[in-house]
Design brief:
Shape: globular
Order of helices and strands: HHHHHHHHHHHHH
Low-confidence stretches: 282-297
Number of strands: 0
Strand content: under 5%
Number of helices: 13
Radius of gyration: 20 Å
Number of domains: 1
Largest sheet: none
Structural class: mainly alpha
Helix content: over 70%
Length: 297
């Protein structure tokens, strides 16, 4: 996979990180880089050069997209939330059958179905937790907020690594979503405050990210089909969670509904047109893919 393609996929993940209800882990799964990304993160110390070369364009794309799309997405969330929601729903819906097929091919037992249902219920349940009281983040905040920020960063990293759980949603529930966005917005107004706050949050994010990545690599290796079915449950639930997470307010007018449904239809029809005209004809037998994987490993 080329540097540019990985960077573009990282950009999609970075955009999704801003939007409550959208999981960075889910987008990584849908984009086909989740498992490889987890492996590279887990082996960063042992195979630093190879892992860094793979991860750098993804990280770069995430950072650039987050910075470039912060204000446009903030405006979109305020003025056209339904259209934005439908775009993400259509993209996720188109990629879900592939994840389901991979889960089915890995094996299916009664416990797997219960695990997928449990993952689905957990993801949906998070949407109904009352949001906490919003806080003000600056250097004058109470001392205990500094370790809290570190722990929140670690918690947010769990949402980045585990598909279906939205980091933005968790921050919204805790009451730190808007304060952290305000901190980013005030980066040039109060640079010292913003830098310290984001640094502490970022350290927690990195610690949790590598820890959970190790866990996910272990689960994918030792409990592959169970993990795949749980991921499928998370992904399906995240599609529903989008509608629960978005705040449509008074913007759900016939015009907005029409535009949103139009975006959905165009993307879904476009996906199936490309699939049946190009991708299906070039499909490779599963046996060939398995042989290729063995040669590459």
């Amino acid at each position: 996979m080329s540097f540019l393609i990985r960077m573009l996929k990282g950009a999609v993940i970075g955009i999704g990180m801003i939007i409550p209800g959208v999981s960075g882990g889910t987008l990584a799964v849908l984009l086909g880089i989740y498992e490889e990304m987890i492996i590279k993160i887990s082996s960063l110390r042992k195979e630093f050069k190879a892992s860094f070369i793979y991860l750098f364009p993804i990280l770069l794309g995430m950072i650039l997209a987050f910075a470039a799309m912060y204000y446009p997405l903030k405006l979109a969330l305020e003025h056209i939330p339904f259209e934005l929601c439908m775009i993400f729903v259509s993209l996720m819906l188109c990629s879900t059958p592939k994840i389901g097929k991979e889960a089915y091919q890995s094996g299916l037992y009664k416990k797997d179905i219960l695990l997928a249902i449990g993952a689905f219920a957990l993801c949906i349940g998070l949407c109904f937790i009352p949001t906490g009281k919003e806080l003000v983040l600056n250097l004058n905040m109470a001392w205990y907020m500094y370790p809290v920020l570190l722990l929140v960063g670690m918690l947010a990293s769990v949402a980045l690594v585990i598909p279906g759980i939205s980091g933005s949603m968790l921050l919204l529930i805790i009451g730190l979503y808007k304060p952290l966005l305000d901190t980013i917005a005030n980066l040039f107004k109060t640079p010292l405050d913003a830098f310290v706050i984001l640094l502490i949050f970022g350290i927690g994010l990195i610690i949790g990210f590598f820890t959970i990545a190790k866990l996910m690599q272990y689960l994918l290796k030792k409990f592959e089909h169970q993990t795949r079915w749980a991921i499928l449950g998370f992904v399906i639930a995240s599609i529903i969670a989008l509608f629960l997470a978005f705040d449509f307010k008074n913007l759900l007018t016939p015009l907005h509904i029409g535009l949103g449904c139009g975006c959905f239809i165009i993307i879904v029809l476009g996906y199936f047109a490309v699939y049946f005209l190009f991708l299906k004809k070039k499909s490779i037998p599963i046996e060939s893919l398995e042989e290729t994987d063995e040669l590459c490993s």
